[in-house]
Design goal:
The chain is mainly alpha-helical. It has one helix and no strands. Helices cover 85% and strands 0% of the residues.
């Protein structure tokens, strides 16, 4: 069996195992950093979607308000027309 020498020791000795453990830990830390970055990207997309939804809801609220104003104007006009019809009917009835 060939022995790999590192720092003057064989592969089974402490310095080699320490180097392997450090490398594994660094790999794990890189994976964790990648996961954190992916999570941050997802959170940014969610925040964008929430903002877009809030904008849509604001536009819907504005449209509802405009529709309510139009309905009030229509109701007011209908009341005026009904009043004119009532006055016309009263004058017609008073003639006969």
């Amino acid at each position: 069996m060939n022995k790999v020498w590192l720092f003057g020791k064989t592969r089974g000795c402490f310095p080699f195992r320490l180097g392997v453990n450090i490398e594994k830990t660094a790999d794990k830390m890189l994976r964790i950093a990648d996961n954190i970055e992916k999570t941050a990207d997802k959170m940014a997309r969610i925040a964008d979607n929430i903002e877009k939804t809030a904008d849509k809801m604001a536009r819907i609220a504005d449209n509802i308000e405009k529709t309510a104003d139009k309905m009030l104007r229509i109701a007011d006009n209908n009341m005026k027309i009904a009043d004119k019809i009532s006055r016309t009917a009263d004058s017609f009835m008073s003639r006969y």
